[in-house]
């Protein structure tokens, strides 16, 4: 049944269908998606753990697919990474974040730093720093309003080159954080070799109910603080998880307990409400 091409093609284009997706067809879709502006961003607030005030937000990619409807990144980022499409898609994300920040500034709206997810392949490109610089300059955006989130893999494959690139970005005022921290297989030694500002604790440690997850979490928070880094707890869904993170002096938190990722217009409203507290 799975070998029957016609049937699979039909199933691929069923709106809302969760059936098997033909990867080669998605690749043609990427080109059109960029040209037709089918991608858009949502923003999830990150808040100060003690006060709940919004400190920044993470930009998360979404795809308004003409046949499949709303497609989440889990369904297409891995394919984009394998095929190399993540590079132009990732560049679009950086440009769109700069454009959005500029629009907020021009409208006199409150603005916070926006974090962008950068995949290893995108970061390892020779012209990565140049592209970031160009995007900021094109929209006249202060580099202090931009953060990049990298995974351990992006950095450990070539620590020396990562150290140089991150040094240049941080000299400009860009914030750098390590995403999904703790789930990678790397030795921790890369942490004191590369300049970073924050560690984002993977949500598996926070959502794991047993003592195991919590003790790893505590250890990572202590490690981050010893290295003078801001520690961010991800995937906070309950009051209880928040209380535990606060108790362990986690600096900032992010998760459905505060807000799901929301469209730009809704994020502006959250921010306006947060800053008058
Ligand atoms: P991530 O960078 O770890 O982003 C956090 C993910 O956790 C987001 O899923 C977010 O919606 C979800 N999340 C936030 N709070 C909670 C919570 O309290 N509970 C639960 N269960 N989940 C929560 P999303 O938007 O589906 O993104 C999934 C992954 O796709 C991201 O994980 C990131 O690795 C990747 N991604 C998203 N946007 C981009 C992008 O622009 N570029 C690249 N390269 N990757 C992206
Ligand atoms: Ca992230
Ligand atoms: Ca993460
Ligand atoms: Ca992740």
Automatic annotation (TrEMBL):
Residues covered by the EAL domain: 23-275
According to UniProt, the name of this protein is Diguanylate cyclase (GGDEF) domain-containing protein
